[in-house]
Amino acid sequence: MALTNSLPPLPDAGEIERILRSTLDALREGRQQIAGLVERLEADYERARNTLEQVKQQALRCIEEVDELEAKSRVARFDLFRVSRDYQRYGEHDVRRAYEEAERLQILLGEARERERFLRERRNELERTVAHLAELLEKAQGIEANMRAAEELLAGNYSGVAHSVSEWQARYEVGRRVIAAQEEERRRLARELHDSTAQGLASIAVELELSERMMDAGTDSVRRQMARLRSLVKETLTELRHVIFDLRPMVLDELGLISAVRRYADYISTLGGPPVEVVVHGVERRFDPPLEVAAFRVVQEAVANARRHGAPSRIAVHLEIGDSFLQLTVKDDGRGFEPEEAYRRARERGSIGLISMEERVKLFGGRFSIQSAPGMGTRVSARFPLTEWPADSRPGATRAS
Fold first, then answer.
1. Could you say which of 247, 274, 295 is where a domain stops?
2. Are 316 and 331 within 8 A, CB to CB?
3. Cβ–Cβ contacts within 10 Å for residue 137, how many?
4. CB 3.0 to 4.6 Å from 358: which of 177, 311, 319, 368, for a disulfide?
5. Residue 331 in 3-state DSSP?
6. pLDDT digit string, tens, across residues 15-27
7. Is residue 370 within 8 Å of residue 379, measured between CB atoms?
8. 10 Å Cβ neighbour count for 391?
9. Which domain holds residue 122?
10. Which residues contact 127 (CB under 8 A, 6 or more apart)?
11. Cα–Cα dist 120/97, whole Å
12. Is the pTM of this model over 0.70?
Protein backbone atom coordinates (compact mmCIF):
# COMPACT_ATOMS: atom_id res chain seq x y z
CA MET A 1 0.00 0.00 0.00
CA ALA A 2 1.56 3.33 -1.06
CA LEU A 3 1.14 6.69 0.66
CA THR A 4 2.46 10.16 -0.04
CA ASN A 5 1.45 12.51 2.77
CA SER A 6 0.61 16.14 1.87
CA LEU A 7 1.46 19.33 3.76
CA PRO A 8 -1.32 21.02 5.80
CA PRO A 9 -3.58 23.52 3.99
CA LEU A 10 -2.55 27.16 3.86
CA PRO A 11 -3.98 29.06 6.87
CA ASP A 12 -5.09 32.70 6.68
CA ALA A 13 -2.82 35.59 7.63
CA GLY A 14 -4.10 35.83 11.20
CA GLU A 15 -3.61 32.13 11.78
CA ILE A 16 -0.08 32.33 10.36
CA GLU A 17 0.78 35.19 12.69
CA ARG A 18 -0.58 33.28 15.70
CA ILE A 19 1.34 30.17 14.68
CA LEU A 20 4.50 32.21 14.13
CA ARG A 21 4.25 33.79 17.57
CA SER A 22 3.69 30.37 19.17
CA THR A 23 6.55 28.85 17.18
CA LEU A 24 8.87 31.68 18.14
CA ASP A 25 7.98 31.26 21.82
CA ALA A 26 8.62 27.53 21.63
CA LEU A 27 11.94 28.11 19.88
CA ARG A 28 13.02 30.61 22.54
CA GLU A 29 12.10 28.17 25.29
CA GLY A 30 14.01 25.37 23.57
CA ARG A 31 17.06 27.60 23.12
CA GLN A 32 17.00 28.48 26.81
CA GLN A 33 16.93 24.79 27.68
CA ILE A 34 19.85 23.96 25.40
CA ALA A 35 21.66 26.97 26.87
CA GLY A 36 21.22 25.37 30.29
CA LEU A 37 22.71 22.15 28.94
CA VAL A 38 25.65 24.13 27.56
CA GLU A 39 26.21 25.69 30.98
CA ARG A 40 26.24 22.27 32.65
CA LEU A 41 28.66 20.93 30.06
CA GLU A 42 30.89 23.97 30.58
CA ALA A 43 30.87 23.33 34.34
CA ASP A 44 31.71 19.64 33.82
CA TYR A 45 34.47 20.61 31.42
CA GLU A 46 35.99 23.09 33.88
CA ARG A 47 35.82 20.57 36.73
CA ALA A 48 37.53 17.96 34.58
CA ARG A 49 40.22 20.46 33.56
CA ASN A 50 40.84 21.46 37.18
CA THR A 51 41.08 17.81 38.22
CA LEU A 52 43.49 17.18 35.37
CA GLU A 53 45.71 20.06 36.50
CA GLN A 54 45.73 18.71 40.06
CA VAL A 55 46.69 15.24 38.85
CA LYS A 56 49.44 16.73 36.68
CA GLN A 57 50.90 18.53 39.70
CA GLN A 58 50.68 15.35 41.79
CA ALA A 59 52.44 13.44 39.02
CA LEU A 60 55.25 16.01 38.82
CA ARG A 61 55.79 15.86 42.59
CA CYS A 62 55.79 12.08 42.46
CA ILE A 63 58.35 12.09 39.63
CA GLU A 64 60.58 14.37 41.70
CA GLU A 65 60.16 12.03 44.67
CA VAL A 66 61.13 9.03 42.52
CA ASP A 67 64.25 10.84 41.26
CA GLU A 68 65.25 11.73 44.82
CA LEU A 69 64.68 8.18 46.08
CA GLU A 70 66.64 6.74 43.17
CA ALA A 71 69.59 8.94 44.06
CA LYS A 72 69.40 7.99 47.75
CA SER A 73 69.01 4.32 46.85
CA ARG A 74 72.16 4.43 44.72
CA VAL A 75 74.10 5.96 47.62
CA ALA A 76 72.71 3.37 50.04
CA ARG A 77 73.63 0.49 47.74
CA PHE A 78 77.15 1.88 47.39
CA ASP A 79 77.48 2.16 51.19
CA LEU A 80 76.29 -1.44 51.54
CA PHE A 81 78.82 -2.60 48.98
CA ARG A 82 81.58 -0.61 50.72
CA VAL A 83 80.97 -1.94 54.23
CA SER A 84 80.35 -5.48 52.99
CA ARG A 85 83.63 -5.47 51.11
CA ASP A 86 85.55 -4.31 54.20
CA TYR A 87 83.62 -6.38 56.74
CA GLN A 88 86.58 -6.68 59.14
CA ARG A 89 86.84 -2.91 59.44
CA TYR A 90 83.16 -2.01 59.88
CA GLY A 91 81.74 -5.03 61.67
CA GLU A 92 78.38 -6.79 61.67
CA HIS A 93 76.44 -3.83 63.10
CA ASP A 94 77.47 -1.46 60.31
CA VAL A 95 76.75 -4.04 57.64
CA ARG A 96 73.27 -4.69 59.05
CA ARG A 97 72.56 -0.97 59.28
CA ALA A 98 73.65 -0.38 55.67
CA TYR A 99 71.60 -3.35 54.46
CA GLU A 100 68.44 -2.20 56.27
CA GLU A 101 68.82 1.34 54.93
CA ALA A 102 69.26 0.10 51.35
CA GLU A 103 66.25 -2.20 51.71
CA ARG A 104 64.10 0.57 53.21
CA LEU A 105 64.91 2.95 50.38
CA GLN A 106 64.29 0.24 47.78
CA ILE A 107 60.80 -0.38 49.21
CA LEU A 108 60.03 3.34 49.27
CA LEU A 109 61.29 3.62 45.69
CA GLY A 110 59.03 0.76 44.53
CA GLU A 111 55.98 2.36 46.16
CA ALA A 112 56.82 5.75 44.65
CA ARG A 113 57.23 4.23 41.19
CA GLU A 114 53.83 2.53 41.54
CA ARG A 115 52.24 5.86 42.51
CA GLU A 116 53.94 7.49 39.55
CA ARG A 117 52.58 4.86 37.15
CA PHE A 118 49.08 5.23 38.62
CA LEU A 119 49.17 9.03 38.35
CA ARG A 120 50.45 8.89 34.77
CA GLU A 121 47.58 6.56 33.75
CA ARG A 122 45.06 8.73 35.57
CA ARG A 123 46.45 11.84 33.87
CA ASN A 124 46.14 10.21 30.44
CA GLU A 125 42.56 9.10 31.11
CA LEU A 126 41.57 12.57 32.32
CA GLU A 127 43.14 14.14 29.23
CA ARG A 128 40.96 11.93 27.03
CA THR A 129 37.90 12.78 29.13
CA VAL A 130 38.60 16.51 28.85
CA ALA A 131 39.03 16.20 25.08
CA HIS A 132 35.71 14.38 24.65
CA LEU A 133 33.88 16.84 26.92
CA ALA A 134 35.30 19.67 24.82
CA GLU A 135 33.96 17.99 21.67
CA LEU A 136 30.51 17.52 23.21
CA LEU A 137 30.49 21.12 24.41
CA GLU A 138 31.36 22.35 20.93
CA LYS A 139 28.47 20.37 19.42
CA ALA A 140 26.00 21.62 22.05
CA GLN A 141 27.13 25.20 21.45
CA GLY A 142 26.62 24.63 17.73
CA ILE A 143 23.04 23.48 18.32
CA GLU A 144 22.39 26.55 20.45
CA ALA A 145 23.82 28.80 17.74
CA ASN A 146 21.57 27.16 15.12
CA MET A 147 18.52 27.68 17.30
CA ARG A 148 19.48 31.31 17.87
CA ALA A 149 19.83 31.81 14.12
CA ALA A 150 16.41 30.24 13.53
CA GLU A 151 14.91 32.49 16.22
CA GLU A 152 16.37 35.55 14.55
CA LEU A 153 15.06 34.35 11.19
CA LEU A 154 11.51 33.96 12.48
CA ALA A 155 11.58 37.25 14.39
CA GLY A 156 13.02 39.20 11.48
CA ASN A 157 9.82 40.46 9.82
CA TYR A 158 7.00 40.36 12.32
CA SER A 159 4.75 42.95 10.68
CA GLY A 160 2.98 43.02 7.36
CA VAL A 161 1.67 39.45 7.45
CA ALA A 162 -1.46 40.19 5.43
CA HIS A 163 0.35 41.30 2.28
CA SER A 164 1.92 37.89 1.59
CA VAL A 165 0.24 34.82 3.01
CA SER A 166 2.37 32.45 0.94
CA GLU A 167 5.57 34.03 2.29
CA TRP A 168 4.39 33.46 5.84
CA GLN A 169 3.40 29.92 5.02
CA ALA A 170 6.93 29.22 3.81
CA ARG A 171 8.39 30.77 6.94
CA TYR A 172 6.03 28.78 9.11
CA GLU A 173 7.12 25.57 7.43
CA VAL A 174 10.79 26.44 7.82
CA GLY A 175 10.31 27.30 11.48
CA ARG A 176 8.38 24.13 12.17
CA ARG A 177 11.03 21.97 10.54
CA VAL A 178 13.84 23.76 12.34
CA ILE A 179 12.13 23.36 15.71
CA ALA A 180 11.33 19.70 15.14
CA ALA A 181 14.86 18.84 14.05
CA GLN A 182 16.60 20.89 16.74
CA GLU A 183 14.28 19.70 19.50
CA GLU A 184 14.90 16.10 18.53
CA GLU A 185 18.65 16.68 18.58
CA ARG A 186 18.34 18.40 21.98
CA ARG A 187 16.39 15.50 23.46
CA ARG A 188 18.77 12.93 22.01
CA LEU A 189 21.86 14.77 23.24
CA ALA A 190 20.48 15.28 26.75
CA ARG A 191 19.20 11.70 26.99
CA GLU A 192 22.41 10.12 25.76
CA LEU A 193 24.57 12.32 27.97
CA HIS A 194 22.48 11.41 31.01
CA ASP A 195 22.02 7.72 30.30
CA SER A 196 25.50 6.82 29.13
CA THR A 197 28.30 9.35 29.24
CA ALA A 198 27.38 11.17 32.46
CA GLN A 199 26.77 7.90 34.29
CA GLY A 200 30.02 6.47 32.98
CA LEU A 201 32.03 9.52 34.04
CA ALA A 202 30.43 9.43 37.48
CA SER A 203 31.42 5.78 37.84
CA ILE A 204 34.97 6.61 36.76
CA ALA A 205 35.17 9.29 39.46
CA VAL A 206 34.04 6.80 42.11
CA GLU A 207 36.51 4.18 40.89
CA LEU A 208 39.34 6.75 40.97
CA GLU A 209 38.55 7.64 44.56
CA LEU A 210 38.49 3.95 45.45
CA SER A 211 41.84 3.47 43.72
CA GLU A 212 43.37 6.21 45.82
CA ARG A 213 42.16 4.56 49.02
CA MET A 214 43.54 1.22 47.84
CA MET A 215 47.08 2.51 47.32
CA ASP A 216 48.05 1.30 50.79
CA ALA A 217 46.45 -2.11 50.26
CA GLY A 218 49.23 -3.42 48.06
CA THR A 219 50.24 -3.58 44.40
CA ASP A 220 47.97 -6.50 43.45
CA SER A 221 44.84 -4.77 44.73
CA VAL A 222 45.70 -1.56 42.90
CA ARG A 223 46.42 -3.49 39.69
CA ARG A 224 43.02 -5.22 39.83
CA GLN A 225 41.30 -1.93 40.55
CA MET A 226 43.07 -0.23 37.64
CA ALA A 227 42.02 -3.07 35.33
CA ARG A 228 38.38 -2.52 36.30
CA LEU A 229 38.82 1.22 35.79
CA ARG A 230 40.34 0.78 32.33
CA SER A 231 37.40 -1.42 31.33
CA LEU A 232 34.93 1.21 32.57
CA VAL A 233 36.73 3.97 30.67
CA LYS A 234 36.64 1.92 27.45
CA GLU A 235 32.90 1.32 27.84
CA THR A 236 32.26 5.02 28.46
CA LEU A 237 34.34 6.04 25.44
CA THR A 238 32.43 3.57 23.26
CA GLU A 239 29.11 5.02 24.37
CA LEU A 240 30.45 8.54 23.82
CA ARG A 241 31.46 7.66 20.27
CA HIS A 242 27.93 6.35 19.67
CA VAL A 243 26.51 9.69 20.84
CA ILE A 244 28.82 11.62 18.55
CA PHE A 245 28.04 9.35 15.58
CA ASP A 246 24.29 9.79 16.09
CA LEU A 247 24.61 13.56 16.35
CA ARG A 248 26.58 13.88 13.12
CA PRO A 249 29.03 11.33 11.70
CA MET A 250 32.30 13.04 10.80
CA VAL A 251 32.63 10.94 7.65
CA LEU A 252 29.56 12.75 6.24
CA ASP A 253 31.52 16.02 6.14
CA GLU A 254 34.84 14.47 5.19
CA LEU A 255 33.92 11.87 2.55
CA GLY A 256 30.27 12.54 1.69
CA LEU A 257 26.92 10.76 1.63
CA ILE A 258 27.88 7.41 0.08
CA SER A 259 30.76 6.76 2.49
CA ALA A 260 28.64 7.92 5.43
CA VAL A 261 25.84 5.49 4.52
CA ARG A 262 28.31 2.62 4.20
CA ARG A 263 29.93 3.50 7.52
CA TYR A 264 26.52 3.75 9.15
CA ALA A 265 25.55 0.31 7.81
CA ASP A 266 28.76 -1.18 9.21
CA TYR A 267 28.17 0.53 12.54
CA ILE A 268 24.56 -0.69 12.78
CA SER A 269 25.63 -4.22 11.89
CA THR A 270 27.99 -4.28 14.89
CA LEU A 271 25.06 -3.66 17.23
CA GLY A 272 23.45 -7.02 16.44
CA GLY A 273 20.19 -7.64 14.67
CA PRO A 274 19.63 -7.82 10.90
CA PRO A 275 22.54 -6.97 8.58
CA VAL A 276 22.31 -3.77 6.54
CA GLU A 277 23.35 -4.07 2.87
CA VAL A 278 24.27 -1.01 0.81
CA VAL A 279 24.07 -1.06 -3.00
CA VAL A 280 25.09 1.94 -5.13
CA HIS A 281 24.18 2.41 -8.80
CA GLY A 282 25.81 5.12 -10.85
CA VAL A 283 28.98 7.16 -10.54
CA GLU A 284 29.73 8.01 -6.92
CA ARG A 285 30.29 11.71 -6.21
CA ARG A 286 29.71 14.43 -3.66
CA PHE A 287 26.47 16.41 -3.51
CA ASP A 288 25.42 19.73 -2.06
CA PRO A 289 26.21 19.42 1.70
CA PRO A 290 22.67 20.25 2.94
CA LEU A 291 21.25 17.64 0.56
CA GLU A 292 23.75 15.05 1.81
CA VAL A 293 22.64 15.72 5.38
CA ALA A 294 18.95 15.40 4.47
CA ALA A 295 19.47 12.18 2.49
CA PHE A 296 21.59 10.63 5.26
CA ARG A 297 18.97 11.46 7.90
CA VAL A 298 16.28 9.79 5.80
CA VAL A 299 18.38 6.62 5.53
CA GLN A 300 19.19 6.76 9.24
CA GLU A 301 15.53 7.17 10.26
CA ALA A 302 14.27 4.49 7.86
CA VAL A 303 16.84 1.92 9.03
CA ALA A 304 16.18 2.76 12.68
CA ASN A 305 12.41 2.36 12.18
CA ALA A 306 12.89 -0.99 10.48
CA ARG A 307 15.08 -2.28 13.32
CA ARG A 308 12.84 -0.85 16.02
CA HIS A 309 9.44 -1.89 14.70
CA GLY A 310 9.76 -4.29 11.78
CA ALA A 311 11.76 -7.26 13.14
CA PRO A 312 13.27 -7.92 9.67
CA SER A 313 15.87 -10.55 8.81
CA ARG A 314 17.66 -8.14 6.44
CA ILE A 315 17.66 -4.47 5.44
CA ALA A 316 18.85 -3.15 2.08
CA VAL A 317 19.77 0.44 1.21
CA HIS A 318 19.86 1.26 -2.52
CA LEU A 319 21.25 4.54 -3.83
CA GLU A 320 20.85 5.40 -7.51
CA ILE A 321 22.82 8.38 -8.78
CA GLY A 322 21.62 9.95 -12.01
CA ASP A 323 22.63 13.09 -13.87
CA SER A 324 19.73 15.08 -12.44
CA PHE A 325 18.48 13.05 -9.49
CA LEU A 326 19.45 11.05 -6.42
CA GLN A 327 17.14 8.13 -5.59
CA LEU A 328 17.44 6.32 -2.29
CA THR A 329 15.42 3.30 -1.19
CA VAL A 330 15.41 1.45 2.13
CA LYS A 331 13.75 -1.99 1.99
CA ASP A 332 13.20 -4.59 4.67
CA ASP A 333 11.39 -7.94 4.87
CA GLY A 334 9.86 -7.27 8.29
CA ARG A 335 6.31 -7.41 9.57
CA GLY A 336 5.15 -4.28 7.73
CA PHE A 337 2.37 -1.88 8.74
CA GLU A 338 -0.47 0.33 7.48
CA PRO A 339 1.08 3.69 6.48
CA GLU A 340 -2.16 5.66 6.93
CA GLU A 341 -2.51 4.38 10.50
CA ALA A 342 1.18 5.04 11.23
CA TYR A 343 0.86 8.67 10.08
CA ARG A 344 -2.26 9.13 12.19
CA ARG A 345 -0.55 7.81 15.33
CA ALA A 346 2.53 9.92 14.63
CA ARG A 347 0.43 13.11 14.50
CA GLU A 348 -1.45 12.18 17.67
CA ARG A 349 1.73 11.48 19.63
CA GLY A 350 3.65 14.40 18.19
CA SER A 351 6.26 12.00 16.82
CA ILE A 352 8.38 13.45 14.01
CA GLY A 353 9.99 10.26 12.64
CA LEU A 354 7.91 9.49 9.56
CA ILE A 355 6.80 13.08 9.08
CA SER A 356 10.31 14.51 9.34
CA MET A 357 11.59 12.15 6.62
CA GLU A 358 8.97 13.38 4.19
CA GLU A 359 9.44 17.02 5.09
CA ARG A 360 13.21 16.78 4.64
CA VAL A 361 12.69 15.44 1.12
CA LYS A 362 10.00 18.00 0.20
CA LEU A 363 12.20 20.82 1.47
CA PHE A 364 14.51 20.00 -1.47
CA GLY A 365 11.65 19.71 -3.95
CA GLY A 366 11.81 15.92 -3.88
CA ARG A 367 9.25 13.09 -3.75
CA PHE A 368 8.78 10.76 -0.79
CA SER A 369 6.73 7.59 -0.47
CA ILE A 370 6.21 4.60 1.80
CA GLN A 371 4.99 1.24 0.56
CA SER A 372 4.04 -1.29 3.22
CA ALA A 373 1.37 -3.70 4.37
CA PRO A 374 1.12 -6.14 7.30
CA GLY A 375 3.35 -9.13 6.65
CA MET A 376 4.77 -7.66 3.42
CA GLY A 377 7.79 -5.67 4.64
CA THR A 378 8.40 -1.97 4.02
CA ARG A 379 9.89 0.13 1.23
CA VAL A 380 10.82 3.77 1.90
CA SER A 381 11.72 5.82 -1.19
CA ALA A 382 13.02 9.35 -1.59
CA ARG A 383 13.97 11.06 -4.86
CA PHE A 384 15.95 14.30 -4.72
CA PRO A 385 16.35 16.51 -7.78
CA LEU A 386 19.97 17.58 -8.24
CA THR A 387 19.28 21.27 -8.79
CA GLU A 388 21.64 24.20 -8.52
CA TRP A 389 20.11 26.25 -5.70
CA PRO A 390 20.51 30.04 -5.57
CA ALA A 391 22.81 31.00 -2.69
CA ASP A 392 20.05 32.83 -0.77
CA SER A 393 17.36 30.17 -1.14
CA ARG A 394 19.03 26.76 -0.75
CA PRO A 395 17.44 24.63 1.97
CA GLY A 396 20.78 24.41 3.76
CA ALA A 397 20.35 28.04 4.81
CA THR A 398 18.11 26.79 7.61
CA ARG A 399 20.95 24.53 8.88
CA ALA A 400 18.46 21.83 9.84
CA SER A 401 20.35 18.75 10.88
1. 247
2. yes
3. 17
4. 368
5. strand
6. 666 766 777 777 7
7. yes
8. 7
9. 12-247
10. 52
11. 34
12. no
